[in-house]
User: What shape does this take?
Amino acid sequence: MTVSDVLMVIAVICIWSLLLVNVALIIAGYLYYIETENKAVPEIRGEYPMVTIMVPAHNEGVVISKTVESLLALDYPHDRYEIIVINDNSSDNSAELLSDIQQRNPQRNLIIINTDAISGGKGKSNALNIGFTRSKGELIAIYDADNTPERTALRYLVAEIMNDSTLGAVIGKFRTRNRDASLLTRFINIETLSFQWMAQAGRWKLFKLCTIPGTNFIMRRSIVESIGGWDVKAIAEDTEISFRIYMMGYRIKFQPKSVTWEQEPQTVKVWFKQRTRWAKGNIYVIVKNLPLLFDRKAAKIRFDILYYVSIYFLLLISLVTSDVLLVLHAMGYVHTTIAGLSSFLWLLAIVLFVVGIFVTLTTEKGEMSLSNLWIILLMYVSYCQLWMVVAAYGLYNYLKDVIFKREAKWYKTERY
Assistant: This one.
């Protein structure tokens, strides 16, 4: 075998290993869907616990009013939850809009914290730490500033965590509110649904693990106090805090009946900026938690660490290697005897991808359609290929942060 053959074999093994893991997660996720579809959410026994909802916001004037109004309308006893909006160093009209809502609802537990460039402006984690100092709830819920949760969303999360003392957090589901705005939002809608039913539901079914998604989740106050709050260096604060919850011996559960709706980027430019930020944040978490691979206490979360390492390092390197070798082979610069086999496996991977994603869409009403089938096919050859660029650029930015010791800051996603 030539050197190019060896490299191609290694790349194919890495790609297919992760692909088969994802197939297993899709199957497990679908089984979890069947398990939960007709199962009632547990009731909250006795007195409803006090809940603090925190909403970190930076220049969110376009969406913040709708978000706060939806939180005020939750079907949870009004005297048993408070809403803390951290209007973090905003330069738009957010402060005025929030003040107006507060004046129109004087009887509600609505707290507005306006920070400046000195106390705030240092990112979501810092904003959450500021809000937490003012909180009173025994449970802490987080919603992003563009979210409109369904009325039952909070109650379902509370019910789950109050009925199981082994749970450190419970996460809900997020849906794309502007899915029909563009072809890109159609892609994102399918991506987020498949991710949640594969990576969240599948991992919960198999390993009793989930990753906090950043919005529509609830956690115990005692956990936040024990870990000293959010890591201000972490951009992907959701993934980072998930690992710390695991290490405390708690589990994180996925409750798909708790639903919130959020805006997604409508242009490639905004999407690329958002996703490279996520990639950089997740790489930070991976590097920070790599030592846990050799920690006996972290045995149950090694899958998660290896899964993230595989996605952001092994898969990226393998995809780039295989693509480059196939192109060079086609141009006659290198010769590989397994190019034909690699092409066959690539086509088979497309089939598995389309079938797997389509299976996850059967869990959502109105999503299993012929048009979405075509969207999935188009998604593979376009949207998914951009992931390599996103991951590579995220790694590049992470290395720049490390070298130049840059601090975390807000990255504003454009709203509509």
